[in-house]
TrEMBL record:
Residues 23-244 form the Polyphosphate kinase-2-related domain. Coiled coil: none annotated. Pfam families: PPK2 (PF03976). This is Polyphosphate kinase. InterPro entries: P-loop_NTPase, Polyphosphate_phosphotransfera, PPK2-rel_1, PPK2-related. Keywords: Kinase, Transferase. One of its GO terms (molecular function) is kinase activity. It comes from Paenibacillus helianthi. Residues 1-25 are annotated as: Disordered.
């Protein structure tokens, strides 16, 4: 969890980190257990309809946001899961406040929702491209804190995951997409253009962490150079968070009926 608001964190954290695992296979074995646990917890969450969970995924291009969603949520009941990918705002969305389109996609009670990018794009991209005045950026940070606090008070638990990939690893993944015909659809020329602003984005993210990592909506750092460790760590955080909630299957509001009395005697 990112807690230090006085120092820059990204320069101190290594995206090559892979924990205490000795191999990818060892991590995947643990992931299998965590997936089973997540499925159990989601079932209770959906039945209880008391809490909801919002998982926000942010990171540089090619950091693995799509892959993280695919791998950690693949084993749960799709009936209680929602995922939204936020792209460039449409004309209608631009005509509203920047949180309008996001609020509509937050999870109702009983659901898990994943945001692939989010309202944080509205303080990152304009900041990097000089389209947002400092006063407006500060105001948006305040709106975000208040928005997330409101969601938390209404029963939505928020997890914000920053997928930290190195600049060299990002280029390697872009090259993979160009060389593999099955991944051409993932390639976007703008990814190469945005690489020119790498350092600016790192600074912008530092401000995001300092301004919006709160007790009710914390930011977690996920080293993302190794896909398998990225997936394991993200899944472990989701499971641990759900386990911290007071989840239980709902009980009947009325006494348990005597089934025998409901069965008509045979003639």
């Amino acid at each position: 969890m990112i807690k230090d608001k006085n120092e820059s964190v990204l320069k101190k954290l290594d995206p090559e980190e892979s924990g205490d695992f000795k191999s990818k296979e060892e991590a995947e074995a643990e992931m299998a257990k965590l997936k089973e646990r997540l499925a159990e917890l989601q079932d209770i969450l959906f039945a209880q309809k008391k809490h909801s969970l919002l998982v926000i995924l942010q990171g540089m291009d090619s950091s693995g946001k799509d892959g993280t969603v695919k791998h950690i949520f693949s084993g749960i009941n799709p009936q209680g899961f929602m995922v939204t990918s936020f792209k460039k705002p449409s004309l209608e969305e631009e005509a509203h406040d920047f949180l309008w389109r996001v609020h509509m996609k937050t999870p109702p009670k009983g659901y898990i929702a994943a945001f692939n990018r989010s309202h944080y794009e509205d303080v990152l991209v304009p900041r990097v491209h000089d389209n947002l005045k400092k006063e407006e950026m500060k105001r948006r940070f305040r709106y975000i804190r208040e928005f997330e606090a409101m969601l938390a008070e209404e029963g939505t638990t928020i997890i914000k995951l920053f997928l930290h990939i190195s600049k060299d690893k990002q280029l390697e993944k872009i090259q993979e997409r160009l060389q593999d015909p099955t991944k051409h659809w993932k390639f976007d020329a703008s990814d190469l253009q945005e690489r020119e602003y790498w350092d600016d984005y790192q600074e912008a993210y530092e401000d995001v962490f300092k301004e919006t990592s709160t007790d009710n909506a914390p930011w977690y750092w996920i080293p993302a150079n190794h896909r398998w460790y990225r997936n394991y760590l993200a899944l472990a955080i989701v499971v641990k968070t759900l386990e911290s909630l007071d989840l239980s299957y709902p009980k009947l509001d009325t006494p348990t009926p005597d089934i025998s009395e409901l069965i008509s005697p045979r003639h």
